[in-house]
Amino acid sequence: MPWNSNDDGPWGSGGSDPSGNKGSKNNNPWNNNNNLDDIIKSAKEKANSFLPGGKKGISLIIIAIIAIWMVSGFYTVGPEEQGVVLRFGKYIETTSSGLNYHLPTPIEKVTVVPVTTTRNIEIGFRKGSDRGGQISSRNLDDESLMLTGDENIVDVNFVVQWYIGDAADYLFNVRNPSQNIKDGAESVMREIMGRTNIEFALSEGREQIRQEAQQMLQDILDSYNAGIIISSLLMQRVDPPATVIDDYRDVQRARADKERLINESEAYANRIVPEARGEASKIIAEAQGYKEQVIARAEGAAQRFISIYDEYANAKDVTKMRIYLETMEELMQNTKKIIIDKNAGSGVVPYLPLPELKSRNSNNSVSGDSR
């Protein structure tokens, strides 16, 4: 049966509505007394019934929401922090510690970064705790083993300590800063070890290597504008590999003995050489004195001979007699003498008791020595 038949409708009521009213010519099932405008008007009236003051109340709520939204822009930066302000994702400024303000989200956002906290990066080893709570260290050969300039292998463990110097550069210029610091520090240390002899690296060169590595790493980070400050680089261990460390220590002990013997020899040389030089100087001085003495004596004798010769030329007899007397005086001075008067016992051979005189002279000599 068609919907527009004048007979009974689909409900068998002859086109009347379900309430039994007949004669209605509008058969649209969606037709009712409330249109869309009436529905909107009814909703407004219901809203006004809940809000005192009507439109004025709605305005107050909107103002309150805006005020709360604006107040949400206040934020606090701690004494060890910096705030980085972004406006629609673009960097605007860096704020210092204290109470600050930014335009509320989503217009501006703030990222607070701790800038004075010191962070550590371990290279060549990792520290951890075992089940008993004891702190232990685990060596990482891939990071720690490095080749030296004289083609030896050295095991290096060190720690890099760093903090944030510029929060904006730290956030936006470098991705994964910790990994970049670790890679840069390892690269720098390998470069330095690659031009350093193992003896220098294991002994007096550790401090020089540490300073050079810290400066080179800082220069690399500055070239990236990373906003990172390397506060210190600490050398934990610089040793030969564990597999050869005993042999290396034997070599070191032998070298230490060599150095000790060299030092002892140098000390002995430093002591004995000055003594020998002093003795040589003494002998030279004595020889020089003896030389001057002999020369002076010879010159004096020559001068005396010349004087005597001059006197002899002037008075030969007198000079002869004087020379004879002086010579006899010198010869007879230390000899035993027996004087005989030539006039005594004329014509008679004098008796000289030579043995008795000799014995008497010997006794006098002994007694004179005892006195």
Commentary on this structure:
With 371 residues, the chain is of the alpha+beta class. Among the domains are: 69-114; 119-129 and 136-243, Band 7 domain (Tetrahydropterin Synthase, Chain A, 2-Layer Sandwich), CATH 3.30.479. The chain is rod-shaped and about 205 Å long. Helix 5 packs across helix 7 and helix 8 (245-314) crosses helix 9 (316-332). The protein is built from ten helices and eleven strands. The strands form four sheets. Strands 6, 9, 10 and 11 form a four-stranded antiparallel beta sheet that branches. The protein has a three-stranded antiparallel beta sheet with strand order 3-2-5, with no helix packed on it.
Structural class: alpha+beta
* Average pLDDT over all residues: 78
Q: In oligomeric terms, what are we looking at?
A: single chain
The residue ranges in which pLDDT falls below 50 over 5 or more consecutive positions are 1-33
The dominant shape is rod-shaped
Tally of DSSP helical segments: 10
- CATH class categorisation of the domain at 119-129 and 136-243: Alpha Beta
SSE string: HHEEEEEEEEHEEHHHHEHHH
Instruction: Estimate what percentage of residues fall within beta strands.
Output: 15-25%
CATH homolog superfamily of the domain at 119-129 and 136-243: Band 7 domain
- What CATH architecture of the domain at 119-129 and 136-243 would you give? 2-Layer Sandwich
> What would the CATH topology of the domain at 119-129 and 136-243 be?
Tetrahydropterin Synthase, Chain A
Span from first to last CA? 188 Å
Rg (C-alpha, Å):
63 Å
Helix content: 40-55%
Care to count the β-strands? Answer: 11
Largest sheet, in brief, is: 4 strands, antiparallel
